[in-house]
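idk why but the lab printer keeps eating my pages so im just putting this in chat instead. protein + S-adenosylmethionine:
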Amino acid sequence: MTEWFNETLHEDYGQHLSIDRVLYREKTEHQDLIIFENSRFGRVLALDGIVQTTEGDEFIYHEMLTHLPILAHGAVKRVLIIGGGDGGMARETLKHQDIEHLTMVEIDPAVVEMCREHLPTLNAGAFDDPRFELVIADGARFVAETDERWDIVIVDSTDPIGPSEVLFGQAFYAGCKRCLTEGGILVTQNGVPFVQGEEITSTYSRLKPLFADVWFYLATVPTYQGGPMAFGWASDDMGLRALDTATIANRFASKSIATRYYTPDVHTGSFGLPVYMLDMFKR
Ligand code: SAM
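predcted complex ->
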């Protein structure tokens, strides 16, 4: 008898994945955590009934939230990740050898510990990289209080439910802004607009008063169901989003980083948004 994981992100729409083997399950201090094996996507991490990442398609999401802003910036030394407990974002970030320091602020230590044990391909050694620093804290409080600065801030949060809800608020975005060096870039996990359109509407309205350039870019991640996923982009340097493919390609070639999704053409093309999304924030 097959056991199924039925995602509960939406009341009227959903996906289900067969659970071939449960590797770990715990109600942590913050959320309901499960790691299980699925024949199609490999090992799957879900939190509070929502798929967070799978071995099968995580590369798309993690490559697009790291290489794109890092190569657009062009001189990144320090990166801050808010969330990111599975380690995939840290793995991709630290492929850039010229990055000197990575701070990851994760609220739930159980996610880090259990992904290190049961989803080791995600961090793939990043957690043991001497450049890596783990801070167990609420990301919203951290960005409001720290006196450190970073060139890139990546918000790799769960959906705006439970502990992540605060990571979609105005105060948090203002905190991210204060943490950025001049010319820095903030990028965010911003949901699937076709079924979570209110996320890009509210993120845009909250970021626009803080940054000169606020936009979104896209990638389709199969287990983030409902169509292309949006990533928030915010910077005070209007030129960074407009860099041409040749410039990005030169920077990418100098890094000799192997990717399975990201290319310079994907980079520049991902900022092209369809009308239905433009209507969600360019009203
Ligand atoms: N790729 C996933 C997605 O797109 O939904 C996100 C993956 S990652 C596992 C999300 C992480 O955000 C979780 O480990 C969760 O514990 C963490 N998180 C949630 N709220 C947080 C907060 N307020 N501060 C720091 N980390 C938080």
